Amino acid sequence: MLERVLPYAKTLLSSVIKEGDVAVDATAGNGHDTVFLAELVGDSGFVYAFDIQQQAVDATKDRLKKHGLEKRVKVILDGHEHLSKYIQEEIAGAIFNLGYLPGGSHDIITKGATTISAIQQLLSRLKIGGLIVLVVYPGHEGGKEERDAVIEYVSQLPQKYVHVLRYEFINQKNDPPFLIALEKMKKLPDSE
Ligand SMILES: C[S@@+](CC[C@H](N)C(=O)[O-])C[C@H]1O[C@@H](n2cnc3c(N)ncnc32)[C@H](O)[C@@H]1O
């Protein structure tokens, strides 16, 4: 069976994130992916989760508490484009679930420029062999602009340094989500 997009994102992340690793949820939302990452890194690992909405930070903290995982995670009320301010360690994996907060305002959405800035910062901190996974939603207002900006940026990354995958069901109607995964192969020339 062909794995669906969201389960495939988890399959990819669990192939690289191990006990003791540092991982990033760039769009915490209701905290589902944050919990998933916190389980992968185990007691000796750590997760940084970002969201610009207080509602999302609260929902994520609540979900972590319910799972007894709050000690493994720092939930940060700030944009992922500022992640270098918060993270100095080497990162094993990161996830972006783009778009708007389910159950929240459809006007607060991720945007191409800030998503790309976060990807650049993550690439410089990613381990060799580490993965950045993005689930892209082109269906909502503003979604296609973000999709086009992200695709344009990741397509030009030199393959010597980053392998870029697009995983997509191409015969589904209504702009279904698709996945982009970036695997760091080699230290990038301009990274610290
Ligand atoms: C599709 S939702 C994430 C869903 C989440 N993964 C979950 O499990 O519920 C996208 C989230 O990105 C957040 N967001 C928008 N711009 C952001 C930014 N610059 N930095 C961090 N989060 C942002 C929104 O507030 C929203 O909660």
UniProtKB/TrEMBL annotation:
It comes from Ureibacillus terrenus. SUPFAM superfamilies: S-adenosyl-L-methionine-dependent methyltransferases. Keywords: Methyltransferase, Transferase. InterPro entries: MnmM_MeTrfase, SAM-dependent_MTases_sf. One of its GO terms (biological process) is methylation. The keyword Transferase applies. This is Methyltransferase domain-containing protein. GO terms for molecular function: methyltransferase activity. It holds the Pfam family rRNA_methylase.
